[in-house]
């Protein structure tokens, strides 16, 4: 039985949102050194370290929480050609697939969107104040991030997202800026549908409804109690 010496990473860039396939040769991963994978835009995606030639540590950059996630695999598993799913441990959303080119292409094209899983998980038990609006707001935000148009003035594109019953909170882990996106009413949905990009203010605190369209549109909103 032939032994595979090449695997393929299928991963969307956490900065520009581009989906790319990267071939990784087993012989390029040298013991006690780190093999790194970058997007064509230059952003870091993944690192692979051979602790021994039978154990490997994989670290992926996360578009969802803004951090990174590390998992260890045996060499037999990593180079088997079978699909390995890498996911965000904070949200459970898929980040990447590793395996044979044929298998990772199929997994990337046939998988149920992690966003749908998240909506179903929370929306089914009445967690959201308005599941329909939250569903669409999340989809709009996902599209903005996929186009690489979600970023902070400080230059960081890895924006974390916290989900609450009535809103999303975007956080830049580099400078601490916060942007609030409400997701309860049709008006909230209308606001994000007008937005092509979201730029967090460096060290700032803003609401998306104050940035819609020209950046000058504001709407009144009653004070709310924070809900977790």
Task: Explain the layout of strands and helices.
Elements lengths: L5 E7 L6 E7 L8 E5 L5 E7 L4 E7 L6 E7 H4 L5 E4 L6 E6 L1 H10 L3 H10 L7 H16 L3 E3 L6 E5 L3 E6 L5 E5 L3 H8 L4 E3 L4 E3 L21
Parallel strand pairs: 9-13, 12-14
Antiparallel strand pairs: 1-2, 1-8, 3-4, 4-5, 5-6, 7-8, 10-11, 11-12
Helix pairs in contact: 3-4, 4-5
Our count of domains comes out at 2
Number of DSSP strand runs: 14
Number of helices: 5
Stretches where pLDDT is under 50 for at least 5 consecutive residues are 213-228
Write up what this structure looks like.
- This protein is an alpha+beta fold.
- The chain folds into two domains: 6-110, no CATH class; 114-210, no CATH class.
- It contains five helices and 14 strands.
- The protein has a four-stranded antiparallel β-sheet with strand order 2-1-8-7, with helices on one face. Strands 3-4-5-6 form a four-stranded antiparallel β-sheet. Strands 10-11-12-14 form a four-stranded mixed β-sheet, with helices on one face.
- Strand 10 (159-163) and strand 11 (167-172) form a beta hairpin.
- It is elongated.
- Mean pLDDT is 79; it is low at 213-228.
């Amino acid at each position: 039985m032939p032994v595979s010496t090449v695997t393929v990473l299928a991963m969307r860039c956490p900065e520009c949102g581009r989906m790319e396939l990267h071939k990784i040769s087993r012989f390029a991963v040298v013991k006690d050194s780190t093999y790194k994978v970058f997007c064509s835009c230059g952003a870091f995606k993944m690192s692979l370290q051979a602790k021994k030639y039978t154990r490997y540590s994989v670290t992926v950059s996360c578009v969802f929480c803004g951090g990174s996630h590390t998992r260890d695999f045996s060499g037999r598993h990593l180079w088997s050609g079978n699909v390995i799913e890498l996911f965000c441990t904070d949200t459970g959303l898929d980040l990447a697939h590793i395996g044979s080119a044929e298998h990772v292409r199929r997994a990337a094209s046939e998988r149920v969107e992690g966003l749908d899983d998240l909506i179903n998980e929370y929306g089914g038990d009445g967690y959201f104040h308005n599941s329909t609006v939250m569903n669409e707001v999340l989809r709009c935000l996902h599209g903005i991030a996929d186009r690489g148009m979600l970023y902070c003035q400080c230059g960081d594109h890895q924006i974390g997202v916290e989900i609450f019953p009535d809103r999303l909170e975007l956080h830049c882990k580099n400078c601490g800026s916060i942007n609030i996106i409400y997701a309860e009413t049709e008006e909230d949905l209308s606001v994000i549908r007008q937005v092509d990009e979201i730029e967090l203010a460096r060290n700032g605190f803003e609401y998306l409804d104050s940035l819609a369209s020209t950046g000058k549109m504001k709407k009144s909103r009653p004070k709310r109690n924070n809900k977790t």
